Amino acid sequence: MSKISPEILLTFIQLDRTLKTPLYIQLYEEIKKGVFEGMLRHGDRMPSTRSLAAEFSISRNCVLLAFEQLRLEGFLTAEVGAGTYVCEQLNELKPAGKKTQPVPLVRTKKATINRNDFPLHTKFVLDYIGQEVTLPFQPSIPSFGDFPFQVWARLAASVYKDIHRLHLGYDSAQGYLPLREALTDYLRLNRSIHCRADQIIIVNGSSQALHLAAELLLKKDELCWMEDPGYLRAKSAITRFGAKICPVPVAKSGMDLEYAMARFPTAKLAYVTPSHQYPLGETMPLIERIKLLKWASDHQMWIIEDDYESEFRYVKRPIPALKGLDTFSRVIYVGTFNKTLFPALRIGYMVLPSAEMATEFTIAKAVIDRQSPVIDQAILTKFILEGHFSRHLRRMRLIYKKAQEDLILLLQKHLGTEVRISAADAGMHLIIWLLKKYDTLEILRQTRERGVILYAIDELSVEFRHEGAFFLGFTGFKQEMMEKAVLILKEVLSNQKPIG
């Protein structure tokens, strides 16, 4: 018989029943903290769920929930008949020897705009610069009717009532300090990111964040890993400053890192959406995240983590951000309120590896955009601090989950023999795959002419194709509107002749 490792004593764990945080989440966070601080090491055998429950005087369900989440994220692994152990790969997150210092940021030389040197590549701009339409199945459309506008209006009135208390001159280009402080707590509790307010910059949405990153981190002709298919505005930002996109295929584990490392080993930047790949929806598992972080550290490569729509997860709890694992100071985290609240708000944020690097980005932002509107930031700060944001997210998860279920039922009812459906674990759109080969461009033209906004996955691809795949937004539309759109799609497909 093989020897079974003795169970480790978890005396370092502290649970506080006076906190509002559920006990199972406290236990989950304490165990994960123990891994990062070295109290738990790879191969350590965890106590049984029954003994842990008895030791801390909590229900066994609390322990089971915590262990399930830790196994999902790859921190723990279970062996039948042998117990639960700390995953071996986790020790690779700890830098060897002295602390790894990020490479000093060298600001690229500024130049006048020259379309030959810095092509905008309008093929990478999917939508129009005019007013956006709100038609099914436009992706990433919030359900405006379910937004707490009365609460927002009350908070706005209170801000304007005390507007003389705000600094009404030029404020910090880095962003409204109370908002940045509120974000540190939100990110710690919801995305497992530990940061300070001086590492955060408020920007006008993720697009501005991506353009700042491309401007400061990439020189002309340098390489950037890019998920393919992937976010078009990220491609636009990369090519705008003369860098080159390295299209990397998407596997079940997200970006195919082996492909990227073999084909583009000199890349200086990687753009990834690890929590919910855009648009295919894959989640990068822990072992792949560790591999990416180690590569970035060893090859002095920066990582942009675009954490779009991560708050809307319908299966288990939200997956912690890649930034939360970054012990090497290589990840630049990008988040936005434009999807979680409403696009017209135009407030996003970046979390930089250090305050010094944040200063560099702040200078670049101030050159073209002195600051984001302070009043809107003040309203948003109150919305977060008074708990409205968290309540809104919890409510919208339920509403969006139901909306996806409604759309899936409609697709199965009307197009069950025509499409295969890939339901989304998170986000605001799902994928359908046509079971027969049709002329994709003709389908797009006919549906859009009839008021149905359909997008093909291949519209987001540079090299790697996904024939017959479309992504459909399911948020922001009532069931009746979605059914009419599905029937239009059915009629369009019925008029097509299969190819081949």
Give the topology, please.
Layout: H1 23-36, H2 49-56, H3 60-72, E1 76-79, E2 83-86, H4 149-161, H5 177-191, E3 200-203, H6 206-217, E4 223-228, H7 232-240, E5 244-251, E6 254-255, H8 257-263, E7 269-272, H9 286-298, E8 302-306, E9 331-336, E10 348-351, H10 355-368, H11 374-385, H12 388-415, E11 419-422, E12 429-434, H13 440-449, E13 455-456, E14 469-473, H14 479-494
Parallel strand pairs: 4-5, 4-7, 7-8, 8-9
Antiparallel strand pairs: 1-2, 3-10, 5-6, 9-10, 11-12, 12-14, 13-14
Helix pairs in contact: 1-3, 2-3, 4-11, 5-11, 6-7, 12-14
Question: How large, in whole angstroms, is the Cα Rg?
Answer: 24 Å
Q: What structural class do the secondary elements suggest?
A: alpha/beta
Number of helices, counting only DSSP H or I runs of 4 residues or more: 14
Strand order of the largest sheet: 3-10-9-8-7-4-5-6
- Residues in β-strands, percent: 5-15%
CATH superfamily of the largest domain: Type I PLP-dependent aspartate aminotransferase-like (Major domain)
Which H/E pattern describes the elements? Answer: HHHEEHHEHEHEEHEHEEEHHHEEHEEH
- Could you name the CATH class of the largest domain? Alpha Beta
CATH topology call of the largest domain: Aspartate Aminotransferase, domain 2
Largest sheet, in brief, is:
8 strands, mixed
Q: What level of helicity do the residues show?
A: 25-40%
* Mean pLDDT reading: 88
Assigned CATH architecture of the largest domain: 3-Layer(aba) Sandwich
